[in-house]
Design brief:
Helix content: 25-40%
Number of helices: 20
Shape: globular
Low-confidence stretches: none
Mean pLDDT: 95
Organism: Streptococcus lactarius
Catalytic activity: (6S)-5,6,7,8-tetrahydrofolate + formate + ATP = (6R)-10-formyltetrahydrofolate + ADP + phosphate
Pfam families: FTHFS
Largest sheet: 12 strands, mixed
Distance between the termini: 13 Å
Number of strands: 25
Strand content: 15-25%
InterPro entries: Formate_THF_ligase, Formate_THF_ligase_CS, P-loop_NTPase
Structural class: alpha/beta
Protein name: Formate--tetrahydrofolate ligase
């Protein structure tokens, strides 16, 4: 059996200028990064805004497990299948982070015969967007420390600086550091730390900004810390938003690539969904909606995180709301949610499928709370048995949700045709009536409690003393009308990663509440979720190499 990279390297890519002809673009509209990658110019982005808006399909999943779900694979394969049945379709997905690529999660280019290409470039440095975001973030950190060194005219309390440096790698040793040590020439000593680049507020901003001016406005609104009198200090106080925007002037433009089947794909932006909003850029999704009849996009991790944030944070910034939501699962993952150990997932276990279905059922119910029809996509594995499939179809029928098996990993577009046809039928017969989960005018506590009780199904929210103090400060500063971005383990509805399935009667603890004024939301941190991940005992990097001719080896 070929690996993902072997399949990708066996495909003869078309020049990107040829790929985009089917969506009405030509070489003058592109800024080329070689033959197979390009960015779309702002002139063209503004021009296509006059076009009608197409259908939007959000792909999400059950809570992730080590068994794997294949959300990106289904996203890409579904788009290829829609094109195969005659629907003009584009993809808008996120860029991978080098942290997971070199760590444990893997890339974000799909798999098998449902991939975006060139997958080696996409999974590594791509067009340099991640580096630009890293540089902008750290340039701001350098300006802050220089301001302290040069006399601190703004009266910034160095103990209350909340802006961290970032690097696009998993590096637990950088979570807590001290800077400015040595002689007075080396700056003012203070405690600091690093986040992973995709957790940076600048990444979140890039993915929500609608143009350069909006980008500058959002950058100016970033709160970097507080003065001795507890008043906030913004980037605009440091007068550096223009320089930061300059560093991001190319990174904000959506990247265009292709699938194995030649479907045009925007791959742009990549905030994590367990610690950020987890969605690709508004610019990419909006532009795709104006270029194609169907746009397939995805949100990170399970629907309790990525989909909720897509619908409550990103959708209000889009020209339309999703017409349907596809929820991805595997029978293997359902069995794990039903209590089966990872090393026993290849054995038939119908009862475990039935038990694990509780997780999928809760996600279906949650999506319906937003007034959007759901379709279940089962990412097919060769170990799936007829009895397990029959049981799942029976369970889906009981809650009246369409379900289709998809073999896009093995069969590409052909393996997603039935899913594509069911999706189109669902959109045509069950029109969406989108509504947000909560009103932004509710208090911070009420918004968090709504997410916890309605989406996670917890019974109570506990706010630690630090969180209460931070909420009081948020209210005092008039920031409390922003939406909530929950930072929570992706593995469970609760804040306990080991509570699989559909846990009940649990409480959620909010340990910290952080305003992200530039991004336009408030982050509520739960459990022990980290904004800088660590590497596993055997990181994926140990399998990687490069041949003498420059060909990537071992990249999944």
């Amino acid at each position: 059996m070929k690996t993902d990279i072997e399949i990708a390297q066996s495909i003869e890519l078309k020049p990107i200028v040829d790929v985009v002809e089917k969506i009405g673009l030509n070489s003058d509209d592109l800024e080329l990064y070689g033959k197979y990658k390009a960015k779309l110019s702002f002139d063209k982005i503004r021009e296509v805004e006059k076009n009608p808006v197409g259908k939007l399909i959000l792909v999400t999943a059950i809570n992730p497990t080590p068994a794997g779900e294949g959300k990106s694979t289904i996203t890409i394969g579904l788009a290829d299948a829609l094109n195969k049945i005659g629907k003009n379709t584009m993809i808008a997905i996120r860029e991978p982070s080098l942290g997971p690529v070199m760590g444990i999660k893997g890339g974000a280019a799909g798999g098998g015969y449902a991939q975006v290409l060139p997958m080696e470039d996409i999974n590594l440095h791509f067009t340099g967007d991640m580096h630009a975001i890293t540089t902008a973030n750290n340039a701001l950190a350098a300006v802050i420390d220089n301001h302290l060194h040069q006399g601190n005219e703004l009266g910034i309390d160095q103990r209350r600086i909340i802006w961290k440096r970032v690097v696009d790698l998993n590096d637990r040793a950088l979570r807590h550091v001290t800077v400015g040590l040595g002689s007075p020439l080396n700056g003012i000593p203070r405690e600091d730390g690093f986040d992973i680049t995709v957790a940076s507020e600048i990444m979140a901003i890039l993915c929500l900004a609608t143009d350069i001016e909006d980008l500058k406005r959002r950058l100016a609104n970033i709160v970097i810390g507080y003065r001795y009198d507890r008043t906030p200090v913004y980037v605009r106080d440091l007068e550096v938003e223009g320089a930061l925007a300059l560093l991001l002037k190319d990174a904000i433009k959506p990247n265009l690539v292709q699938t194995i089947y030649g479907t045009p794909a925007f791959v742009h932006g990549g905030p994590f969904a367990n610690i950020a909003h987890g969605c690709n850029s508004v610019l990419a999704t909006t532009t795709a909606l104006h270029l194609a009849d169907y746009t397939i996009t995805e949100a990170g991790f399970g629907a309790d995180l990525g989909a909720e944030k897509f619908l409550d944070i990103k959708t209000p910034n889009l020209p339309t709301s999703p017409d349907a939501v596809v929820i991805v699962a595997t029978l293997r993952a359902l069995k794990m949610n039903g209590g089966v150990a990872k090393d026993a997932l290849t054995e038939e276990n119908v009862e475990a499928v039935r038990a694990g279905f509780a997780n999928l059922k809760r996600h279906v119910e949650n999506i319906r709370k937003f007034g959007i029809p759901a379709v279940v996509a089962i990412n097919e594995f060769v170990t799936d048995t007829e009895a397990e499939i029959a049981a799942l179809k029976e369970l889906c029928a009981e809650i009246d949700v369409p379900v289709e098996l998809a073999s896009v990993w093995a069969n590409g577009a052909d393996g997603g045709v039935e899913l594509a046809e069911t999706l189109v039928k669902t959109i045509e017969t069950s029109p969406a009536n989108y509504t947000r989960l909560y009103d932004n005018n509710l208090s911070v506590e009420e918004k968090i409690e709504t997410i916890v009780t309605e989406i996670y199904r917890g019974v109570k929210v506990n706010f630690e003393k630090k969180a209460k103090t931070q909420i009081a400060q948020i209210v005092k500063n008039g920031w409390d009308k922003l939406p909530i971005c929950m930072a929570k383990t992706q593995y469970s509805f609760s804040d306990n990663p080991n509570a699989l399935g559909a846990p009940e009667n649990f409480e959620i603890t909010i340990r910290e509440v952080v305003p992200k004024l530039g991004a336009g939301f408030i982050v509520a941190l739960t459990g022990d979720v980290m904004t800088m991940p660590g590497l596993p005992k055997r990181p994926a990097a140990l399998n990687m190499d490069v041949a003498a001719d420059g060909t990537a080896v071992g990249l999944f």
